[in-house]
Amino acid sequence: MITDTLKVFVTVAEERNFSRAAKLLHLSQPGVSLHIRNLEDELGAKLMLRSPKQVRLTEAGEILFRKAKQMLALYEEAQQEIHLLRDVVTGSLSIGASFTIGEYILPAVLAEYAHQYPDVDVQVHISNTDNIVHDIREGRFHIGLVEGSTTARDVQLTTFMEDEMVLVMSPDHPLATYKSIDPGMLQDQVWVLRESGSGTRAYSDRLIEEGGLAVKRSFVFSSSQGVKEAAAAGLGIAVLSRWVVRKELGSGELCEVKLKGMKLGRDLLMVQGKDQPAGMALLKFVHILEQYAKRHYADL
Predict the structure, then answer these.
(1) 7 with 21: CB under 8 angstroms?
(2) Which residues contact 68 (CB under 8 A, 6 or more apart)?
(3) Residues 256, 166: contact at Cβ < 8 Å?
(4) What are the pLDDT digits (tens) for 121-135?
(5) Contact 148, 266 (CB under 8 A)
(6) 155-169 and 238-241 as β-strands: parallel, antiparallel, unpaired?
(7) Domain range for residue 166?
(8) Among 101, 102, 160, 96, which Cα is nearest to 134's?
């Protein structure tokens, strides 16, 4: 293959010596010389100048040397990817996910993953963001998927998707008559919130604090489902991921009201231990998750 000849050429160029290159490649010195001569004949250019002490590249040789290294690197990368296609991915994969991701995004990702890699044993634990980050630090999961931000510094954080947040309420709520409102109109409202430690709760708290909003009263639920049902029943207003409320918005059970001059959103993050090795089962999962996120953006 041409790659064999290119590898001989690159080795001679790096060693600047035919005999040392032959030893490294486990070839005879005449065999190395034949590769170089065939390459020069094919390209119609002198590539190397030989002297008793060393080998020096010509201008044409310098050009080929740079390109040959790139070509060999790409060929090796292609070999690795093709090899991975042949391998059967097995083992186990433990995932910790916060509620919004675990209940509304992860099931579709896992369905695709399980179809492609049926021999991997997958376990999923759903909890709030703080708990998942803590468990990652303790080494309980291979990967965590959480909403919002974390103050943990001893973990690796990677954004895999942006999440749109929406202000929702019952169709009977007084604010539901508006398509958009000034943030100041949220003063002295009743809020339905997630529990402390939740990424959704952290986002709601930040929105209330940065807007200088007074809260008339609040109700706290330990799941997004509870918050959603309470808001639909008229208990108060809530800020939730669009993933959580898209069906209810479509059916009219909930109303969305936009805030003028504000775009509500947050990052969805992959959380991993900094020194944790990534097995093949995890690498394949991350790839499918990232592809899912790309398709989601394309649909927006």
Answers:
(1) no
(2) 6, 9, 10
(3) yes
(4) 999 999 988 899 989
(5) yes
(6) antiparallel
(7) 162-266
(8) 96
DSSP string, 56-125: EE-HHHHHHHHHHHHHHHHHHHHHHHHHHHHSPP-EEEEEEE-HHHHHHTHHHHHHHHHHH-TTEEEEEE
Pair type for strands 143-147 and 238-241:
unpaired
Return the higher-pLDDT residue of 138 and 118. Answer: 118
Domain count, the chain: 3
Q: What is the pLDDT of residues 32-71, one digit of tens each?
A: 999 999 999 999 999 999 887 788 999 999 999 999 989 9
Pull the structure tokens for residue 190: 């009743």
Do 59 and 188 have their domain in common?
A: no
Give the chain's length. Answer: 300
Nearest Cα neighbor of 104 from 299, 236, 247 is 247
| Closest to 171 (Cα-Cα) out of 89, 71, 253 | 253
Helix (H) or strand (E) holding 166: strand 155-169
Please name the residues in contact with 227: beta carbons below 8 A apart, sequence gap of 6 or more.
Answer: 192, 193, 194, 200, 221, 238, 240
How far is Cα 69 from Cα 9, in angstroms, rounded to an integer?
10
Residue 195 carries which DSSP code? Answer: P
Say whether both 169 and 203 belong to one domain.
Answer: yes
Asked if 60 and 102 sit in the same domain, the reply is: no
